[in-house]
Amino acid sequence: MLKVQLEKASKRFQYEWIFKNLNLQLSQGDSLAITGGNGSGKSTLLKCLSGAVPITSGRIIFEVDDKEIPESDRYKSLSISAPYLELPEEFSLLELIDFHFKFKRPINQIQPRELIELLYLDQHITKPVSQFSSGMKQRLKLGLALFSDVPLILLDEPTSNLDKKGIAWYADLIKNHQNNRTLVVCSNEPREYEFCEQRLALEDFK
């Protein structure tokens, strides 16, 4: 069971504090919405949680069964979907999924073609990802994050580029496939995080 703990975590860019003295504890099955207006630092906090960006002070601790995970190994415990993450667009859809699951195990041993059907991309198996629409790419990012066998899922603006039908698909995806894993959603759109049991308003930690 994964536990994530922030102790007085703070992040500063030059003279601007993005967040200060943030204390937080997440256990298996928790769902947290990180809210705040554009430019408030939601994505920065998510990047700090993922290990992509270091914090300025304080600590971020990952533990499994009360044993701390080294910072260099945290990536094995999480998956992330975000607008700023690029997909390798020279791959076809099937090639990209096969490539992704060389690094992450698929949850419930889901097969690539089964996943493709769940993403409503079965008409595009051999198409290069570079030819996908923005909505298709977003569904793919969400699918790769949710169907990776990891205890922590980080989602940044998960319905960006999705139409009304895609937003309903996202809600069903979370409902049916969170599977008692810890979920963190960065958003200022209530429709993206209404299922989250906890809220963290980043403006409270400036």
Which radius of gyration do the C-alpha atoms yield?
Answer: 17 Å
Number of discrete helical segments: 6
How many distinct beta strands?
9
End-to-end separation in angstroms reads 31 Å
CATH superfamily: P-loop containing nucleotide triphosphate hydrolases
Q: Which regions contain 5 or more consecutive residues with pLDDT less than 50?
A: none
Estimate percent helicity: 25-40%
The averaged pLDDT comes out at 95
Q: What is the total domain count? A: 1
Q: For the record, what CATH class applies? A: Alpha Beta
Which descriptor suits the 3D outline?
globular
CATH architecture descriptor text: 3-Layer(aba) Sandwich
Order of helices and strands: EEEHEEEHHHEHEHE
CATH topology: Rossmann fold
Label the structural class: alpha/beta
Largest sheet: 5 strands, parallel
Strand content: 25-35%
Strand order of the largest sheet: 6-7-8-3-9
